[in-house]
Amino acid sequence: MTLPAPPSALLEHASLFLDLDGTLVDFAMTPDGIEVCDNLRGLLRHLQSSLDGRIAVISGRALADLDSHLNLPNLALSGSHGLERQRASRDEEAPLPSQSVIMATAAAHAFAADHKLIVEPKPGGVAIHFRGAPALEDTVDRFMAGSAVRHGLILQKGSMVRELRQPGRNKGDVVRQFMQESPFSEGAPIFLGDDLTDEDAFRASWLVLIAPRPPSTAFPMSRPSKTGWGRGGDEPFTLANRKLPSQRACGRQRGDRLGLPAAGRRRPPLLFTPRTGTA
């Protein structure tokens, strides 16, 4: 289904929350393999200015890893699926790894070494990536499900990754927390994401943009109307299943293809156009 562009005034008075991997940048074979280019950084700075600071990147990556890749010191961030948070002022909230996480991380390293997979330790959990060995998905699922039960952790599924994380705040919770604080409280929450790991944040947003996959059928979201825009009761507006070309070069990141307005453009051509300087 090909959907038309949303209304041009969509970002007026918005508080914008963005996923990173699979949304702003393409997935890579390894967690360190993503490429965040200066044009994407410029785009985020432009949005930060035009939205009066009402923008945050919310990722499953550890906060330190996310901060290092983006290298935008005054941008609000959340890492580890909401367990870690950093305001634009650089104030941080981060849990200490529990004993359960420490034990699960050790077991994940041993399992990954046996199967030549990639482990990504985080302050509040541990992930195993199998993008380079997709045939091992069932094997990884069995191991991680068993480890979740043994260590009392939450199993989080993602695109070619399985993660164990300690109970606590999720992406939806951190969206709600940001929305209780200035400047986010002055806008309406919009979340842009692509994966199962984003669905908690979808539930916390009154308008949801999804690229490139629709939400799971278990998620109670309004279906796009024939015109691409509809609202069902209290369910969020939805733009679902917008197909995105793969990133071919560093200069053409997903942020460009999603229609986020690049600095210097008077009429951004794709999804939406914020009105610069609105309160």
Question: Which features characterize this protein?
Answer:
279 residues, alpha/beta, Rossmann fold, Alpha-Beta Plaits, eight-stranded mixed beta sheet, four-stranded antiparallel beta sheet, 7 helices, 12 strands, 25% helix, disordered C terminus
List SSEs in N-to-C order: EHEHEEEHEEHEEHEHEEH
Task: Enumerate how many helices there are, as a single number.
Answer: 7
- Give the biggest beta sheet: 8 strands, mixed
Strand order of the largest sheet: 5-4-3-2-1-10-11-12
Instruction: List the quaternary state of the chains.
Output: single chain
Distance between the termini: 35 Å
The CATH C-level class name of the largest domain: Alpha Beta
Tally of DSSP β-strands? 12
As a percent range, the share of strand residues is 15-25%
Rg, Cα atoms, Å: 18 Å
CATH level-two architecture of the largest domain:
3-Layer(aba) Sandwich
Helix content: 25-40%
Number of domains: 2
CATH superfamily of the largest domain: HAD superfamily/HAD-like
CATH topology heading of the largest domain: Rossmann fold
Structural class: alpha/beta
**Uncertain runs:** 214-249, 262-279
| Averaged pLDDT | 78
Describe the structure.
α3 (99-115) packs antiparallel against α4. A hairpin with a 5-residue loop joins β4 and β5. 43% of the residues are buried. The chain has two domains: 14-94 and 169-257, Rossmann fold (3-Layer(aba) Sandwich), CATH 3.40.50.1000; 99-165, Alpha-Beta Plaits (2-Layer Sandwich), CATH 3.30.70. The chain has helices spanning 38-50, 63-70, 99-115, 137-151, 171-179, 199-203, 254-257, and strands at residues 14-18, 55-58, 76-79, 84-86, 92-93, 118-122, 125-129, 154-158, 161-165, 188-193, 207-210, 237-239. The protein is of the alpha/beta class. The strands form two sheets. The protein has an eight-stranded mixed beta sheet, sandwiched between helices. The model is unreliable at 214-249 and 262-279 (pLDDT under 50).
